[in-house]
Design a protein that fits this description.
Helix content is 16%, strand content 32%. It is α+β, with helices and mostly antiparallel strands. It has 3 domains: 149 residues, Sandwich (Immunoglobulin-like); 134 residues, Immunoglobulin-like (Sandwich); 70 residues, no CATH class.
């Protein structure tokens, strides 16, 4: 994870040993409580997106530390909660943090608030149980810091995702019925050979992977009007690929038959990124075309159709859609875009369908939806002089 200025390890002699939220030994303070607001990098107050939403959840709780310049704490793991969804205002759950009478301070914060291990001040994460929305929300761990803050300053904490995210969009292939995949439970899908936990150092946001173990994802509703039969999403501990065998796999169990996809050894899973894989399961193989895999920021994609229609944004969308149509034509060299406009989607080649089913490349769900959107967007541009 990228961090800015690192701070010294919390001075153990100056810290209490309790793991729950605590206020340090009272010291003279200015009488001015610190005002906090929570944002998610790059400074967008409402973008927590674990479950595809675009806002903080009311009462989301964060833990905050206020530190002296030498790293010793003035306040430790004080719980604040989101009290205003429109601007990310944080309110204290109990006694607020007060600025000292003199001297600048540092702030370190994390989400979701919970138990912190002392004296090294680490926060433990386990991805084993994540088959419900509530469980995954708790795994969307984030971290923020502000340094050298003068007393009296309102503090905006810009949180960034500590974890990575993966989505498998699964389609029935040769000798499989669509319903075979539609009814596949999340418990029959597993990631193997990956870290099942990690430890987050609150001092600097460093994440240390834990032991490897199998875990299952959460089953989510596929995009509307898509050809995807089932979607499975999981929060992952970020991990680097290797030139050596890693043994990382995703398995799908139908009755007593296990179908295995070997995740490429060199694949990186980066903090704050969402990786989307189109998966076709045949009776004799699993197909994941590397050219169709996408990796995007966990935050909303720039071509999200809900974005405001400024001229610059419209031009970006038009360029993206024209690129998409070119990719569609390239994927089926025997047919022009004009022919693809008229053709029944069921007759389009798998390569084209994979592009159409990609929620990042194709936010408008269907081929005709892209064409209609392209025509509508061009009408929004100012007339050419």
């Amino acid at each position: 994870m990228k961090t800015n200025r690192y701070i010294p390890i919390f001075a153990a002699a100056a810290l209490l040993a309790a793991c729950a939220q605590e206020i340090e030994r009272p010291e003279p303070h200015s009488g001015a409580a610190v005002e906090f607001a929570a944002a998610i990098a790059p400074d967008a107050p409402a973008t927590r997106t674990t479950s595809g939403g675009n806002s903080w959840v009311l009462n989301d709780s964060v833990g905050i530390y206020m530190l002296k310049a030498d790293g010793s704490p003035l306040a430790s793991n004080v719980y604040y909660y989101i009290s205003n969804l429109s601007d990310g205002t944080l309110s204290p759950k109990g006694t607020p943090i007060y600025y000292p009478v003199t001297g600048n301070v540092d702030f370190v914060a994390y989400y979701p608030a919970g138990t912190v291990r002392t004296p090294n001040y680490t926060y433990s994460i386990s991805v084993i149980d994540q088959q419900t929305e509530a469980q995954q929300n708790q795994l969307d761990v984030m971290w923020a810091d502000r340094r050298n803050v003068a007393p009296g300053t309102a503090v905006s904490l810009s949180f960034r995702h500590v974890m990575s995210k993966i989505t498998l969009n699964v389609m029935a292939g040769k000798n499989f019925e669509s319903n075979d995949v539609v009814v596949l439970p999340a418990a029959n899908v597993a990631f193997n050979g990956m870290p099942a936990g990690a430890s987050l150092r609150l001092q600097d946001g460093t994440l240390t992977p834990g032991a490897k173990s199998a875990f299952s994802p959460r089953k989510v509703t596929p995009p509307a009007n898509s050809m995807i039969d089932a979607s499975f999403t999981a929060i992952l501990v970020p991990q680097e690929g290797s030139t050596k065998p890693t043994g990382r796999t995703a398995t799908f169990t139908f009755d007593s038959n296990v179908y295995t996809w070997a995740i490429p050894d060199t694949t990186n899973f980066v903090a704050g990124k969402h990786y989307v894989y189109p998966v076709t399961i045949n009776r004799d193989s699993i197909i994941v075309d590397a050219s169709e895999v996408t990796a995007a920021d966990w935050e909303p994609h720039p071509n999200d159709p809900g974005e405001a229609n400024s001229v610059g944004t419209v031009q970006d969308k038009i360029a993206a859609l024209e690129d998409l149509l070119e990719e569609l034509e390239e994927a089926d060299k025997n047919k022009t875009v004009a022919v693809l406009r008229e053709e029944d989607l069921t007759a389009i080649t798998p390569a084209v369908l994979a592009i159409l089913n990609d929620p990042i490349l194709n936010p408008y769900k269907t081929l005709q939806g892209n064409i209609d959107e392209l025509d509508d967007l061009k009408k929004l541009l100012p007339p050419t002089p």
